[in-house]
Design goal:
Structural class: alpha/beta
Largest sheet: 11 strands, mixed
Order of helices and strands: HEHEHEHEHEHEHHEEHEHEE
CATH topology: TIM Barrel
Shape: globular
Radius of gyration: 19 Å
CATH superfamily: Aldolase class I
Distance between the termini: 29 Å
CATH class: Alpha Beta
Number of domains: 1
Helix content: 25-40%
Bound molecules: iron/sulfur cluster
Number of strands: 11
Strand content: 15-25%
CATH architecture: Alpha-Beta Barrel
């Protein structure tokens, strides 16, 4: 496909150099994410997320457990970045997202990782928790493109983003895989220390959808472009499923691909909060599925009581 992924298009390719300069400048008084810490990360100062100049990577590998059009048959080339700009009390990845397990890597090394994953045959480069290291990713991408990178990038985010930063990614990211975790700021404050999450999350998701639209797939049902929204159902409707689904159907499209996740486990510090220190019940999850249907959303994945995905959409084949 000519000029696919988007970053190979000549105009986007030359814009990338400017974007790297622009975003490294932002790192000098860091306002990369809604925390707006103002620390000078080019001098290795650290703000809320705990990352200085260079990214920390926990692991990189072909991932076969993502949604079927992302993992495909050869896996999604996943790079797990350590640290995060959210502090979710229940984070299942807390060892690297909160405790920082991983190694500091240069943009050159990060570029090598992308090329290695491409050499293994992965369908895409899946950047997990990229928000706080976006400038460094752009720099690594520039290096990797010079060395022959030609598979699409997935921006796999918790969704705590500044819309103006997402605008910078236009023409670079073909696929956004983004969480919509909360609709209520009372809960985002209590469980993720981010009172302004719902507002920034919704505005950023709108920008993502403006850029890439609904998901598109190739002849092998691998995603080539578009938005997938993940919504993790939390106990006691803390994730505000109905409000989130209403937002998607009213503000985006009823063809948006949604992954409605039932796998919540009370990891990390969830034990401190009785209301989230258990799994989601079958009834709670079924209610969430009902919200999806009532909002006319029928594209994506829901899960049965064994955690098996059931596809209910119109654009791609069943995976079971
Ligand atoms: S990316 Fe990190 S340092 Fe920068 S504003 Fe966000 S939390 Fe603060």
């Amino acid at each position: 496909m000519e000029n696919y992924p988007s970053y190979l298009k000549p105009s986007n390719r030359s814009a990338l150099k400017t974007k790297i300069k622009e975003t490294y400048k932002i790192l000098e008084s860091c306002t990369i994410c809604p925390r707006r810490c103002g620390v000078n990360r080019t001098k290795d100062e650290k703000g809320f997320c705990g990352v200085g100049l260079n990214p920390v990577v926990c692991s990189y590998m072909p991932h076969h457990g993502e949604e079927p059009p992302i993992s495909g048959t050869k896996g999604s080339g996943t790079i797990f970045f350590s640290f995060c700009n959210l502090k979710c009390a229940y984070c299942q990845n807390y060892r690297f997202s909160q405790e920082g397990e991983g190694r500091i890597v240069s943009p050159e090394r990060l570029g090598d990782m992308m090329l290695y994953l491409q050499e293994l045959g992965c369908h895409n480069i899946n950047l997990v928790t990229p928000t706080h290291v976006m400038p460094q990713i752009l720099k690594a991408l520039d290096i990797a493109i010079e060395m022959g990178l030609n598979i699409p990038l997935i921006y796999n985010s918790s969704g705590y983003e500044l819309p103006e930063m997402i605008k910078i990614l236009k023409g670079i990211m073909d696929i956004y895989l983004v969480d919509m975790r909360y609709a209520d700021k009372k809960y985002s404050k209590k469980y993720s220390q981010a009172e302004d999450y719902p507002n920034f999350n919704q505005e950023s998701v709108k920008e993502m959808h403006r850029q890439v639209g609904d998901a598109e797939f190739d002849e092998n049902d691998i995603i080539t472009k578009g938005l997938i929204i993940r919504h993790l159902v939390l106990p006691n409707n803390i994730s505000g499923t109905e409000k989130v689904m209403q937002f998607i159907s009213k503000e985006l499209s009823n063809k948006v691909c949604i992954s409605l996740m039932s796998q919540y486990h009370p990891y990390y510090q969830a034990y401190k909060y009785p209301e989230i220190s258990r799994r989601v019940t079958k009834e709670e999850y079924e209610k969430a599925v009902e919200c999806l249907k009532q909002c006319g959303l029928d594209n994506g994945w829901t899960q049965d009581s064994c955690g098996l995905e059931r596809f209910a959409g119109v654009n791609i084949k069943k995976n079971v």
